């Protein structure tokens, strides 16, 4: 399959760790040149970038754009196009979380979550579409969440943002249905990322239980198969959505949630 991806370029926001980095590895293995984006230690990021190039035999660049700033995102897309020749796939993955009841939700945290998790997705799509239309090809994949389909108490901003991502995905698909540009949303359940690990650690501390017990309880409350999804599994879904076999899959949500939203 990698041969079919030669000279294709994929940009993944929030890809210096967690789900985004897992997606980057899967797409690099498919033969895509990779644009990494996110925050972290500069040396570690450079080592990650070099590892992708060496391990998978593709080109990789890092652009530390702020997804909450449109000019920064547009410049990142332009850099991908100028340095790697095109931008064929954008995976809008960057995200943050904060938990609080609605009537106590800190206003700055609300703005932060909406700006990164929803507005950042819009910025990525808006910046990438002109080049995709010009080239007559594009795959837009938004990493939403099970919380883009259902709600959980305490996660008002996150749920609102992810529901917004699902709606924006549908509109983008409709507007580009005849342009050979697809747009879909992947809705993972629990994935053991640094973001989720923090929720587990906070729960263990708050309830005075072990981290393992907190992890088990977190899973069993929502995810019937009691198993975390993995970044590789999400990456495999991204690779499918980029494949020729998925050219008629657009405007939809695909759940990887262990039957969470089947309940």
Structure description:
This protein folds into two domains: 2-189 and 229-256, Rossmann fold, CATH 3.40.50.720; 192-228. Helix content is 49%, strand content 13%. It has eight helices and seven strands, in the order E-H-E-H-E-H-E-H-E-H-E-H-H-H-E. A seven-stranded parallel beta sheet has the order 3-2-1-4-5-6-7, with helices on both faces. The chain is globular, with a radius of gyration of 18 Å.
Any idea of the CATH topology of the largest domain? Rossmann fold
Care to count the β-strands?
A: 7
* Count of domains: 2
- Estimated share of beta-strand residues: 5-15%
State the strand order across the main sheet: 3-2-1-4-5-6-7
Describe the structure in brief.
The protein has 263 residues and is an alpha/beta fold. It contains eight helices and seven strands, in the order E-H-E-H-E-H-E-H-E-H-E-H-H-H-E.
SSE diagram, text form:
Elements lengths: L8 E4 L5 H12 L3 E4 L5 H15 L3 E3 L7 H15 L4 E4 L14 H29 L2 E6 L12 H20 L5 E8 L5 H14 L3 H12 L8 H12 L10 E4 L7
Parallel strand pairs: 1-2, 1-4, 2-3, 4-5, 5-6, 6-7
Helix pairs in contact: 1-8, 3-4, 4-5, 6-7
Give short descriptive properties of this protein:
single chain, 263 residues, alpha/beta, Rossmann fold, globular
